[in-house]
Amino acid sequence: MRAMSLYNAVIAEPLGMARLQGLATRYNMSTVEKRPIEIRDSNNSGVAGTLNVTLFAPNDRTVRALKTLGLFWALAVGSIPIIIAHWVLVPGFLIAGPIMAVRRYRMTESVDGAEGTCPACKGAIKVSMETTDTLPKWTYCPACNAPIQLVPSEKPSS
Ligand SMILES: [Zn+2]
Fold this sequence. Notes:
The protein is an alpha+beta fold. The protein has helices spanning 2-12, 17-27, 58-79, 86-106, and strands at 31-41, 46-55, 109-117, 124-128, 137-140, 147-152. Helix content is 41%, strand content 28%.
């Protein structure tokens, strides 16, 4: 028993769950986060909604960056047989590869879309968004076409 509690205090606790969870978030796959938002119509009456965001783990970001680099360099190689245009395309793709890869690596999250209830037609809606979209954002209800605004729920008190 004594040895067991000593083991727990010295080894299991410091190296335990917190560390494992840290490793999991550091090395595991991307996670999807649901953020609370408010869906407002032009009258400013808001309804609670959800914003789905994919958070990329660092190794995911590396893989995405390498895929981008591979794609651009493959395009560079693929452009070699194109007469005359290859003088522009091959170096262009070669240079664009690392630039786009770095841009992709820096992208830590991507917006998948929002869902909730439309304040105008009260229907359950799913709003598709650009991966780089930020809130607040004006868009249209996919059901009734009413202009709606997506606002983050945690409003800074000002
Ligand atoms: Zn609607």
